[in-house]
Design a protein that fits this description.
The complex is a heterodimer of chains A (401) and B (388). Chain A is α+β, with helices and mostly antiparallel strands and 401 residues long. Chain A has helices at 51-69, 105-116, 163-174, 186-194, 197-202, 234-244, 249-259, 288-310, 335-343, 366-380, 391-398, and strands at residues 5-12, 16-24, 30-39, 43-44, 47-48, 75-80, 86-95, 124-136, 139-141, 151-162, 180-185, 204-209, 214-220, 223-230, 272-274, 285-287, 323-326, 347-349. In chain A, the strands form five sheets. In chain A, strands 3-2-1-6-11 form a five-stranded mixed β-sheet, sandwiched between helices. A five-stranded mixed β-sheet of chain A has the order 14-13-12-17-18. In chain A, strand 17 (323-326), helix 9 (335-343) and strand 18 form a beta-alpha-beta unit. The relative contact order of chain A is 0.15. With 388 residues, chain B is α/β, with parallel strands linked by helices. Chain B is 43% helix and 19% strand. Chain B has a six-stranded parallel β-sheet with strand order 3-2-1-4-5-6, sandwiched between helices. In chain B, strand 12 (368-369) and strand 13 form a beta hairpin. Chain B starts with a strand and ends in a 7-residue tail after the last helix. The chains are: A alpha+beta (401), B alpha/beta (388). At the A-B interface, strand 5, helix 3, helix 6, helix 8 and helix 11 of A face helix 11, helix 13, helix 14 and helix 15 of B.
């Protein structure tokens, strides 16, 4: 049997480090052949705060994944998240040059160049330039080449991030002796798993709520029109519970998972939950109502902030496919109902595609599966890289999902 | 021994006046403010009127820049105030124009002449908005640079302590009480003869290694089971559970005040509890004194813990790691750019200006989202009262 290319998606997340190994077979198609998963260390809010700890955990997860796949990883695709990521919409516009007003290849190159040509602060670098529809004299056109018109414009959703923070991720992978082939922001990786082509056409918001961050992407007309990272996730719920009920983080995490829900029950004023007895033997009781208040306050705010951010680019009612939630924190009871009320749109819980199996169907693996999906997509296209350029500048040029 | 407490600005002066009125503790008092009318109402003899030529006796109106100018101009007055003081308590509210600008300058002048400086600061309510939060942050970063310990009391916390029937003033007097208890405990441990006395030099040594992160908590109880109950009360103190707080300390200052029956084994029990709960590696400093007026086995505990710039150490370690050569390291940029970048990182290695981070998420650094610090629990920022 001819061996295909061995690729790995690696998510260095706040909760866990997930490595999924896939084999891209000739003729297209991908088989998942290995999986490694380690609890994260040294990561907060999606960012590496202790390089050595994060590195050791990642290397352990890669080792485990290579062991289960009984092969060597050849190409690595990583995800990026964190509050340092910033997205901006840039539009370029040129006059069509030819005397017959037919759009030429040169016009298209010029308009793309103009849209992407915005300068960045010194310590920032572009991760993605995501192309939106061309417009020819205000008409939306998919491919303007040869069409008649006067003014050609195109918009790009460009995502930039802090160089050092991105570099930390790359160096962790390099430290294992592997190269990073490409990187994708978490929101897009997750969105590509839980939203269908039809939904992206109709307009959909996907939110990946993890432990450290909430990453969202807005699709309309088949294009990505906005992405965003809110550096708030399940860890914040735990921290809020720990502070609010004055218990340690382990107890708070347990309460969240076992008793937590997004909505506040009425007529619950006196019901209490017993905490596991502490060393001096006394058992503390905490009001269930307080736990619900703490969680509700936090999650209501998360969705309100995302709603506000989405409203900057589109009227929510135009997202006719509504919203889909994924990520570990989407397991919180009633989170769909709460988000429905706040976002004022249909909300469903995401399911990873059927080609993923077993544990990988769970919502916390949307990102890492999305990375593999992208690896497959990319192998289907031939892309020329300039040898002179480093990874980050190259990524910025070729990316378009 | 010369111990002094100075209240800076309106909020700070109020605390100092509250303490002064009790006449229960032997220390020197002073208040300073730009607001002449407010200052006149204070009952303390030592009043320092700031910036007369600049504000004409009015407040700074929350103008931090103006506060800075006044601080610069009044250095002579400050020096006079801190002259010969061995241990100085500063109390102020950050977020306004006076406290955040003046207090760090006073702290700096005092510490330069060898005074131990312990600052208590109120942080503004989240609902007061982004501008105040930013101003408060500026003041806090400065103050941490020049003080031996900075104890933060977030105003958001006050709303959690009161019922709907209470007034805001009642909430503030509770907060004042927290500060007063701490100051009295430390002063008594230094001055009164007790079971274990606090030594000024030992205190100086403990605090000299601090990086500004401070744990502060109180507990009290009375009755047959007072020690256990005081520890229980201590562990539930709201100050121990603030978003800015830390549970990791390198050294602890444990003050215990008890009635005439306070035994050494009680002291031992409390200190052991503190050492195991706050992962203190070094020896704790202990002060245990008797207050004859304490009946019914009454006992009070006040703990201050400091950690030596843990976060800064971590940041530096991270930078060093990035600088390590790695045989597999990918080329990320054109060579010229990479060189410049590395130089920039190397020069960052001193890391003096990295502000000490707060709370569980502190290592990532504070990210303000439209002026709000989202790491602070939402219920606290929105004033949703959570019952225990």
């Amino acid at each position: 049997m001819a061996k295909g290319k061995i690729v790995a998606g690696i998510e260095i997340g706040t909760a866990k480090i997930a490595v999924v190994v896939g084999e891209i077979v000739s003729g297209g198609g991908l088989n998942i052949i290995g999986f490694g998963n380690m609890p994260s260390q040294g990561i907060k809010k999606g960012e590496i705060v202790d390089f050595e700890l994060a590195s050791a955990a990642t290397h352990a997860a890669i080792t485990a994944a290579e062991k289960t796949s009984q092969t060597r990883i050849e190409e690595v695709f990583i995800s990026q998240t964190g509050g340092h990521l910033v997205g901006l919409f840039n539009e370029g516009s040129v006059n069509v040059t030819a005397s017959d007003n037919a759009v030429s290849k040169i016009d298209i190159e010029r308009v793309i160049q103009e849209a992407k040509g915005k300068e960045l602060p010194k310590d920032c670098v572009y991760i993605h330039h995501i192309q939106n529809s061309f417009k020819l004299d205000e008409r939306m056109v998919a491919n303007p080449l040869g069409m008649m018109g006067h003014k050609l414009s195109v918009g790009y959703w460009s995502v930039q991030g802090n160089v050092q923070k991105i570099r930390d991720h790359i160096h962790i992978i390099n430290g294992f002796g592997l190269r990073v082939e490409d990187m994708i922001i978490s929101s897009i990786a997750a969105g590509s798993m839980v939203a269908s082509a039809e939904e992206k056409e109709n307009g959909i918001l996907t939110i990946d709520i993890g432990r450290g961050t909430s990453d969202f992407v807005v699709y309309k007309g088949g294009y990505i029109i906005k992405t965003g990272v809110l550096p708030v996730g399940g860890d914040h719920i735990t921290n809020d519970i720990s502070l609010g009920l004055r218990i340690d983080r382990l107890q708070a995490e347990k309460l969240k998972v076992e008793e937590g829900q997004a909505l506040i029950e009425e007529n619950l004023t006196n019901e209490k939950i017993g905490l596991a007895a502490v060393e001096n033997g006394s058992q503390r009781m905490v009001p269930k109502h307080s736990l619900q208040q703490i969680i509700y306050s936090r999650m209501e705010e998360v969705f309100a902030l995302i709603k506000e951010s989405v409203a900057e680019v589109i009227v929510p009612s135009e997202l006719t496919a509504g919203c889909v939630l994924t990520g570990g924190t989407s397991r919180l009871l009633q989170i769909d109902e709460l988000s429905r009320r706040v976002l004022e749109m249909d909300v469903r819980l995401g399911v990873n595609p059927s080609w993923s199996q077993g544990e990988l169907r769970e919502p916390e693996y949307s990102v890492v599966l999305g990375l593999l999906h992208y690896a497959l997509k990319r192998s289907e296209k031939t892309i020329h890289h300039s040898k002179r350029e480093g990874l980050l500048s190259r990524v910025a040029k070729v990316f378009n999902l | 021994m010369n111990i002094k407490i100075i209240g800076v600005g309106g909020a700070g002066s109020n605390v100092v006046c509250d303490l002064y009125k009790r006449k229960s503790v032997d220390l020197n008092f002073a208040v300073m403010d730009t607001d002449a009318a407010d200052l006149n109402r204070k009952s303390i003899p030592e009043k320092i009127f700031l910036g007369s030529s600049m504000t004409k006796g009015l407040s700074t109106g929350g103008d931090y820049g103006l506060g800075k100018k006044i601080a610069e101009k009044e250095k002579g007055l400050f020096t006079e105030q801190v002259q010969g003081v061995d241990c100085l308590f500063l109390v102020t509210g950050l977020g306004g124009g006076t406290g955040g600008a003046v207090t760090p300058v006073v702290a700096d002048l005092a510490r330069k002449q060898g005074t131990i400086v312990i600052a208590f600061v109120f942080l503004p309510f989240s609902m007061e908005g982004a501008h105040k939060a930013a101003q408060s942050e500026n003041g806090l970063v400065e103050l941490r640079k020049y003080s031996d310990a900075v104890i933060c009391l977030p105003n958001d916390l006050m709303l959690q302590q009161i019922d709907a029937s209470n007034t805001v003033l009642e909430a503030f007097s509770l907060a004042n009480e927290w500060i007063i208890k701490g100051v009295v405990a430390i002063v008594n441990s230094l001055l009164k003869t007790g079971i274990v006395n606090l030594d000024l030099n030992a205190l100086r040594k403990m605090l000299s290694q601090s990086g500004g992160k401070t744990l502060y908590s109180l507990g009290s109880a009375e009755g047959d089971n007072a020690v256990e109950e005081a520890l229980q009360n201590f562990s539930m103190c709201p100050l121990l559970h603030t978003p800015q707080g830390t549970q990791f300390t390198e050294s602890l200052l444990v003050n215990i005040t008890g009635g005439p029956l306070l035994a050494l084994q009680d002291v031992n029990k409390i200190v052991t509890y503190m050492n195991t709960h706050f992962s203190s590696k070094k020896n704790s400093l202990i002060g245990a004194v008797i207050d004859e007026s304490f009946n019914n086995n009454k006992i009070e505990i006040c703990v201050i813990g400091v950690s030596a710039g843990l976060q800064q150490g971590l940041l530096r370690k991270n930078v060093r790691n990035r600088l390590k050569e790695n045989p597999h390291q990918q080329v990320l940029f054109f060579d010229e750019e990479a060189k410049g970048d590395r130089k920039a990182m190397a020069s960052n290695e001193g890391g003096q200006d990295v502000p000490a981070a707060d709370g569980y998420f502190g290592q990532v650094g504070k990210i303000l989202y439209k002026g709000e610090d989202l790491d602070i629990p939402t219920y606290l920022r929105k004033g949703v009262k959570v019952r225990l």
